[in-house]
Amino acid sequence: MLIRHLEYFVTLAEEEHFGRAAELCGVSQPTLSQAIRKLEQDLGVALIVRGKRFMGLTAEGERVLPWGRQILSDFGSLKDDLSGRRKGGLTGQLRLGVTPAAMAALPRITERFEERNPLARITASPMTAEQIVQGIEGFALDGGLLWLDDAVAGNAALSRVVLAQEEMMFACPPDHPFAAEKTIPWRDAMTQPLVTLGAGFPVPGDGAGKPLIRAGITCNSLAGILAHLRGGLWCAVVPQGFAALLAPGDGIALRSMTAPALRLPLVAVLSARDPQSPMVRAFRDCLPAQAAGT
After folding, report:
1. What residue ranges define each of the domains in the chain, with the CATH number in brackets?
2. Which pLDDT does position 189 carry in this prediction?
3. Cβ neighbours of 188 (radius 10 Å)
4. DSSP 3-state assignment of 274?
5. What DSSP character marks residue 45?
6. Which residues pair with 69 in a beta bridge?
7. How far apart are CA 44 and CA 30, in angstroms?
8. Hey, how many other C-beta atoms are within 10 angstroms of the C-beta on 9?
9. Whole-model pTM?
10. With 0-12 CB in 10 A as exposed, 13-18 as middle and 19+ as buried, what is 157?
11. Which stretches in the chain have pLDDT values below 50?
12. HTH lysR-type domain: from which residue to which, for each copy (predicted)?
């Protein structure tokens, strides 16, 4: 079995189209088809449902797909490791998934990674926590940044590193009446026109399971929240790291929230697999020195 045959199969499974898969692999469509047939012969099973067009994977093909991704990931890590030893620092690509609330913390890590691995590239894609976990488990991501929740904390396939305890803050324009206050109770915040982050944004409840705030607008990025705050009408509930996005002239007030105060662990997640790939190790080594493993 050749690595490139496995690469052709995984690409076809992801693209679900022979023509696109062949183009991405840099080969003709007949060459791609012949390679996959050779892979099937080597494994002794049919991997794809034959037809005039792509019609899906067989049951055996579905089982081979995650193994194929893992083998290709390991092979890529081997090449990166050997190349990095020759050139100083890794080559290849660091693939990260980042939830909107964690974007402000990302530069501390990417700057350190770039300094140590100038020949490598970094891709940071906005994702939900669920997408990040699936990406790491499926070898599509090297790591991620997100808020710690029960699903992540209980996942034995993930290693977690706490980066900070993020306090939830109330944000408002400088001329808003609440700007003069030192702290804002959640019950007062919910009386204002609020914009918050989208799915997965944690807010405390009233004891009966009812959230203490009702967002008028949800955004999938901190930049979207900032744009609404600059407009002058909207207030927001944001993580403490939001302060890094403010320009000197914004004047936006950030106030602690009480009753209750809410702090959430911001964590980096990566595969707990041993051994970890060189890229995953390089990501882990670039996490802030004060971070503690969980």
Report:
1. 3-81 (1.10.10.10), 83-163+265-293 (3.40.190.10), 165-263 (3.40.190.10)
2. 87
3. 15
4. coil
5. S
6. none
7. 21
8. 25
9. 0.66
10. exposed
11. 86, 290-292
12. 1-58
pLDDT of 142:
92
The enclosing H or E element of 94 equals: strand 93-98
Per residue in 104-156, pLDDT (tens digit) is 889 989 999 998 888 889 999 989 888 999 999 888 899 999 988 777 888 88
| Residue for token pair 């076809």 | 12
Amino acid letter, 259: A
Q: Which residue has the tokens 């900032």?
A: 226
Integer Cα distance of 30 and 74 in angstroms: 28
State the burial class of residue 112 (Cβ atoms within 10 Å of its Cβ: 0-12, 13-18, 19+).
middle
Q: Tokens standing for 157?
A: 């396939």
Q: What is the pLDDT of residue 104?
A: 83
Tally the C-alpha atoms within 13 A of residue 249's C-alpha that lie toward its C-beta. 0
- Quick one: pLDDT at residue 180? 92
Residue type, 218: T
